Amino acid sequence: MHTSLKYLFIVLLLSVGIILKAQEKIEETTIVVKNVNIITMTLENKIIKNANILIKGKKITAINGVIPGSAKIINGKGKWLIPGLIDMHIHGFADINYGSAYPTQGATFLVDHQDAMLPYIANGVTTIFDLNARTENFAQRNEIIKGKVIGPRIALAALINGGNGSGRIANTPSDGRQTVRLAKAEGYEFIKVYSDLNIETFKAITEEAGKQNMKVLGHIPDAFKGKTEEAFIPNFNMIVHAEEFAKQSENYSDQDIQKFVRLSKENGTWFSPTLIVIERIADQARSLENIKKLQGFRYIHPLMQNKWLTSNQYHNRTSPEFIAYLERMIQFNNRLVKAFKEAGIPIVAGTDAGCSGVVWGYSLHDEIELLVKAGLTPLEALNSATRISASWLGIGDKIGTVEVGKYADLILLDDNPLDNIQNTRKISGVFFDGKWIDKRKTDKMLSDLAKRNLKNINKYDWKKRKEL
Ligand SMILES: [Zn+2]
């Protein structure tokens, strides 16, 4: 070998060695939040005041343990640490083909994954549950797992409907069962049932999903109107939207509420009321100005901003009767939440983010606040967005509380959320899978994104999306 080549070779070997060492070092660095008040959110909700919490790699390794000299220290004095929040009902924003695809074409509208995940990061939403997932959501999730994008953990449900629309449609029990088996084979983790399923197909889907070890959640199909009790079958594990019950009630009576409570309790069906979505539908039915005022609106993609402002299905059908109908439903929803709470049925926080007017990330804080307004204590509302949700997903041993051995999905807050639930918004920094991101960093990312969106605001027209 030529001497200079030999030299180069040695230098290369050495630098590989240094890089490997450096990587080891990154993995080994312990991060400590010092003197922080920890709201553990465990069953007994132990609050550990003025504690040190050690995070190494992705996990919490000790609370009040020995701090290594090499540790990176975050000052937690006077601050409060809670588990990362879980939004149990979102519709993810991912690549899509709005037009007619041809082989090799792929998506025509491409999403910057980091931009799409940023509102979750800024709001401490460390886990999301997509209730109508597509192949592209798997791809997006893998980018996060690879570490190319910072973002939440993502659970994926396949939606099955009846009728003759698009998507996964099943109108016979055997089609329903086969659709479940295919979803399982494709890697979906849960089944979401939808409004137009007929009774026999709904029952077959729910039973087959049970056999496949997949939980079922979703709407109460409209076909059950007048015989609501028949929908409560084994493995129908969670009803999403309070209005699913409202639709099953003629007069919003207390008797009906008590009946829904009894059916859910007896069947072990949990409840995700998504109070925020009806509030937002009412807001935009009243005025589109309410859309522009939404917290976080400028961080959503210009195409979505355009859709919500120019093709707003709720505003387009607005009338005094529609608004009155929504307002009555909001009252009913709140009574329902209170009754479910009193009966001890687990209530799960979800938002329907991605629906017109429901901003990803930001809306979960709205939902938690609305749960408190409906009668939950701040602790119960926080529980519904942490431990209870993790438990429904079957990952209660991994996330949802602040405990040694769990993944470090955490939010550092400036004030105690148990004193005032609005304090969940006072975020000083977050841990996503052990990675610390402080508020300065997310603020900078958000302002960059808002500037970019503003620059591109006129480039996107929802009505011309097929031409993208
Ligand atoms: Zn939804």
Automatic annotation (TrEMBL):
Amidohydrolase-related domain: residues covered: 81-437
Transmembrane segments: none
Residue ranges that the Swiss-Prot or TrEMBL entry lists as coiled coil: none
Superkingdom to which the source organism belongs: Bacteria
UniProt-listed InterPro entries: Amidohydro-rel (IPR006680), Metal-dep_hydrolase_composite (IPR011059), Metal_Hydrolase (IPR032466), Metallo-dep_Hydrolase (IPR051781)
Record's protein name: Amidohydrolase family protein
Species lineage: Bacteria, Pseudomonadati, Bacteroidota, Flavobacteriia, Flavobacteriales
